[in-house]
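cron nightly-structures :: item 1 of 1
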Amino acid sequence: MGYAQAEPDFSEAFQEARATAGRDDSIAKTEVLLEQFCIWARTGSGVPAKYRSIMAATMNIEGESTVREACISDDQALEIDQAWRQLEDARPDEALVLQLYYMHEWEIPKISRVCKASKSTVSMLRKCGLSFIDAKIQDE
């Protein structure tokens, strides 16, 4: 027996991202897409149904629905992935901060401490990296 899944409500996440992005809707949407991309990458979304990533298998050993599902299409995720790879090539410091912040879900103070950089520098690198990805996906 299948259960109908409720449509995800991005309004709260979008409003929070919008406030942080200084009311720039494009950056706020990119931030939400980036967050969803990281869930997509961690959970093995977009891979054939019989295969799950090691991370997804570890988080969901008993097969229960405890793993968050990404609310992003495979096409959108691949577009984000391509932009992220371009960022890694062009600006590795920004790419590292984005990886730690979004993929590993570290907070700014932890990134600052581990990378031995000020919180304002880490915040600036995150915003610059986010703007780079936003520009790349807008160009596509």
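cron nightly-structures :: done
The chain has a mean pLDDT of 76.
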